[in-house]
Design brief:
Elements: E1 4-8, H1 12-24, E2 28-32, H2 35-45, E3 49-53, H3 61-71, E4 77-81, H4 86-94, E5 99-102, H5 107-132, H6 152-170, E6 179-182, H7 189-199, E7 207-211, H8 217-225, H9 242-245, E8 250-254, H10 261-273, E9 275-276, E10 285-286, E11 290-295, H11 299-304, H12 310-316, E12 319-322, H13 332-347, E13 354-355, H14 357-365, H15 371-385, E14 390-391, H16 421-435, H17 440-447, H18 451-460
Parallel strand pairs: 1-2, 1-3, 3-4, 4-5, 6-11, 6-12, 7-8, 8-11, 13-14
Antiparallel strand pairs: 9-10
Helix pairs in contact: 2-3, 6-7, 13-15, 16-17, 17-18
């Protein structure tokens, strides 16, 4: 584990021995001979953990501990005391010390305590990140089996993911390359990212995700790479970024095409060096993290437009996974719809619900521009509003005009142009009603008005099914 420690110790021989031992294990060290010097270095070096001696010239260790806790509430501090100072150790724990060591200090034990302090601090920071973000509902399955569908494109997708998982398991050294997950909106890119994580060798590590389009551009860099206290106006305390929080696991960046060029440069360095530097820090930290990115945009086109770095694109393009749109997954719509209906019926306490044959045919004929997400939302709405155990085709909130192959194409309209605004409004209302088979709710939805407004205008223009067209 890579981290930095500030050693506040006035015995030069002991301090030098600890410094040498820890640096041999890849731990960066800074030495301070007094509490006052330690407080100054705390502001400059921003260590991950502090080893603080009690018997110091000037301010005592307890006084320095309290000042450090005021300035850095989440910084772990380990207190070192001499024999016969058990009360000091108790006082230190009450003042917020992470742990205490009795001198003479075993260097092996020292490293173990410091490792544990940093690990627990990072885990606590990760939990704060995840609790602060929006809650994510995990699917029933978290692996490749959660990708439902027997169509040929889905079989090829699952085979591709298994190849990637097997390659990860066989790696003997180095870091796994990034994976670029492409596909239209709603095709399930997050589900694929979770499948790669929970099926792979990092399944016991954290899965940390961030939607790059869901945060203001000025906050994305801080969220990813963290910051030190005072790095910018609102940085009142140190905060590790999501990259460090994902140490030992997977970092999933959704909508990676939304990153600004400056942040793209830092992401490229992370992929090349596996190091991260917090905003306001002068020290880089090595992280062991697998990066997965997703986008519904053409990064190649963005490279040509100068909005995405070509070197980052080529780095991300080492491994690609492309998700098929639902319109190309012949036969999967029915399978998914039945699965979503069973879940929604259970959620809303509706008992056993079924789709009529005509309803399934209409769903199979729909183009589903929103893909699996649109299908899931449509089925949930049907289940929530269902009054009968059988959901009919007319209960589906789908405009008939979009159902290619389900209804005969409407004949070319050769009627003369309307001569007034009321005439134009009447024709628009009548056209929406006819296209939606006089289903008032669906016609109102197609026009973007409420059902009550639609009813009012039907009465206003005396529109009747089978009545005169003009």
């Amino acid at each position: 584990m890579s981290y930095s420690v500030l050693i506040v110790e006035d015995e030069p021989v002991l301090a030098r021995n600890m410094h040498t031992y820890l640096e041999r294990h890849g731990i960066g060290c800074q030495l301070a001979a007094s509490g006052e010097e330690g407080l100054e270095l705390l502001e400059v070096e921003r260590p991950d953990v502090v080893l603080l001696d009690h018997n110091l010239p000037g301010k005592t260790g307890l006084a320095v501990l309290r000042l450090m806790r005021e300035r850095e509430p989440n910084l772990p501090v380990v207190m070192a005391t001499g024999h016969g100072s058990e009360q000091v150790a108790v006082d230190a724990m009450r003042a917020g010390a992470f742990d205490y060591l009795i001198k003479p200090v075993s260097l092996h034990q020292l490293k173990q305590v410091l490792d544990r302090a940093v690990q627990q601090q990072r885990q606590a920071q990760e939990l704060r990140h995840l609790r602060a973000g929006s809650a994510v509902t995990l699917p029933e399955g978290q692996g490749i089996a959660a990708l439902v569908g027997d169509s040929a494109p889905m079989q090829r997708l699952r085979a591709r993911l298994r190849q990637l998982v097997e390659a990860d398991a066989q790696m003997t050294d180095g870091f796994a390359p990034a994976v670029l997950i492409g596909g239209d909106t709603g095709t399930g890119k997050e589900l694929v990212a979770r499948a790669l994580h929970f099926e792979g060798p990092r399944r016991n590590g954290p899965f940390v995700e961030i939607n790059c389009a869901g945060l203001p551009s000025q906050l994305v860099e801080s969220e990813l790479f963290g910051h030190e206290r005072g790095a910018f106006t609102d940085a009142r305390e140190r905060r590790i970024g999501l990259v460090e929080a994902a140490h030992g696991g997977t970092l999933f960046l959704d909508e990676v095409g939304e990153l600004e060029l400056a942040t793209q440069a830092k992401l490229l360095k992370l992929l090349e060096d596996h190091q991260v530097r917090r905003l306001g820090s002068v020290r880089a930290r090595t992280v062991d993290v697998r990066v997965l990115v997703a986008t519904n945009r053409s990064l190649e086109a963005m490279v040509k437009e100068g909005r995405f770095r070509d070197d980052l694109y080529f780095r991300l393009g080492t491994l690609k996974v492309n998700l098929p749109p639902l319109r190309q997954r012949h036969g999967d719509v029915t399978q998914l719809a039945l699965l979503f209906l069973a879940r929604s019926a259970s959620r809303y306490g509706k008992g056993a619900l079924v789709f009529s044959t005509e309803a399934l045919q209409r769903m199979e004929a729909h183009s589903w521009p929103g893909n699996v997400r649109e299908l899931a939302n449509t089925v949930e709405q049907c289940a929530m509003l269902a009054g009968d155990p059988v959901i009919e085709a007319d209960d589906l909130p789908l405009p008939v005009a979009l159902e290619a192959g389900f209804a005969a194409a409407a004949p070319l309209n050769t009627d003369p142009l309307p001569t007034s605004l009321p005439d134009a409004e009447r024709r628009l209302l009548l056209s929406a009603l006819e296209r939606n088979r006089w289903n008032v709710t669906q016609a109102a939805r197609a026009l973007g008005i409420s059902r009550d407004t639609m009813r009012y205008r039907i009465d206003k223009f005396d529109l009747r099914e089978g009545g005169p067209a003009a």
